[in-house]
Amino acid sequence: MDDITLRQLILDELEFEPSIDAANIGVAADNGVITLTGHVSTYAEREAAERATRRIKGVKAIAQDIEVRPAGTHKTADDEIAKRAVNTLGWHVTVPKDAVQVKVQNGWVTLNGRVEWQYQKTAAADAIRDLSGVVGVSNMIEVTPRVSSADVKKRIEDAFRRDAEIEAKGININVADGKVTLQGKVKTWSERQAAEHAAWSAPGVHNVEDRLLVGY
């Protein structure tokens, strides 16, 4: 697929996605490497634009340069964002109570702490990104492993076999101290994303290094 066609497919997908106001988003394509520019009003829109771009066949990599510009002239103070974030996490059933600490600077939220599962780390960031005034989220929460490397590898291999989208025979898995390294070759970007998601879903995983190549 040529870059002109790929760029148009991405623009069409951004326009089609109801959670995004794509009027101020720019797209450039260079040999399958996509650069997203422009601005949106919320961090959630920024993330949604990246997810929509990843769905397009032929996308090999994404450079995310979209700026978050909250709508209106009123800027939410950092302490107000911090209070809302703490309250939101406190009410969230998936995030362990008092496990996450919040820091806010110029609208950018940094999350620290420790949890047992990757889904808890992800849930904490998901709960924060939609708050008014948030322009970005750095998720620095650590996932504390409680299982052996052999068990982690087996769970990931089992997950690969269950997922019809993943051809596991082309993927090598290495696990050491909660870090998973994926190597090999997959046919599509979506298959690469599915493999990475399966690796993150295994208990005890705190880091995934995705070295999978996309191509036939």
Automatic annotation (TrEMBL):
Keywords: Signal. The keyword Signal applies. SMART domains: BON. Residues 2-70, 77-145, 148-216 form the BON domain. Pfam families: BON. The keyword Signal applies. InterPro entries: BON_dom, Lipoprotein_DolP, Transpt-assoc_nodulatn_dom_bac. Gene3D superfamilies: 3.30.1340.30. This is Osmotically-inducible protein OsmY, contains BON domain. The lineage of its organism: Bacteria, Pseudomonadati, Pseudomonadota, Alphaproteobacteria, Hyphomicrobiales.
